[in-house]
Specification:
This is Flagellar biosynthetic protein FlhB. Belongs to the type III secretion exporter family. Required for formation of the rod structure in the basal body of the flagellar apparatus. Together with FliI and FliH, may constitute the export apparatus of flagellin. Pfam families: Bac_export_2 (PF01312). It comes from Alishewanella maricola. By secondary structure, the protein is an alpha+beta fold. It has a single domain, classed as name from scop (3-Layer(aba) Sandwich), CATH 3.40.1690. It is 34% helix and 13% strand. It has a two-stranded antiparallel sheet with strand order 1-2. It starts with 7 loop residues before the first strand and ends in a 19-residue tail after the last helix. 8% of the residues are buried.
Length: 101
């Protein structure tokens, strides 16, 4: 018997309006299938056991609660940067990201 907790996954959808919503969730093999499907489609995956535990308490179609807005917003913003997406008015003020790399 394994001491590791069963794998879980929660997928969010964010369309730019309102809060992100839960569009898929599962444990065990279903979680593995959700993660595999996300990877197949180039969806970025963030692994965080505590965030996963909190999100797993929500139901399909639920918006994320206000208490999670900041962390989810940071993850969405970071995923945009990783994909090379920046706001039109962003000027790389701090020169922390090499846009030519």
């Amino acid at each position: 018997m394994s001491d590791q907790p069963e794998q879980s996954a929660t997928a969010l959808k964010y369309d730019g309006a309102g809060a992100p919503i839960i569009i898929a969730k599962g444990h065990g093999q279903l979680a593995a299938d959700i993660i595999a499907l996300a990877r197949e489609h180039g969806v970025l995956i963030h692994e965080d056991a505590e965030l996963s535990r909190l999100l797993s308490q929500l139901q399909l179609g639920d918006q994320i609660p206000k208490a999670l807005y900041l962390i989810i917003a940071e993850l969405i913003a970071f995923s945009y940067v990783l994909q090379g997406k920046f706001p039109e008015n962003w000027h790389n003020i701090h020169q922390r990201i090499d846009l030519k790399a």
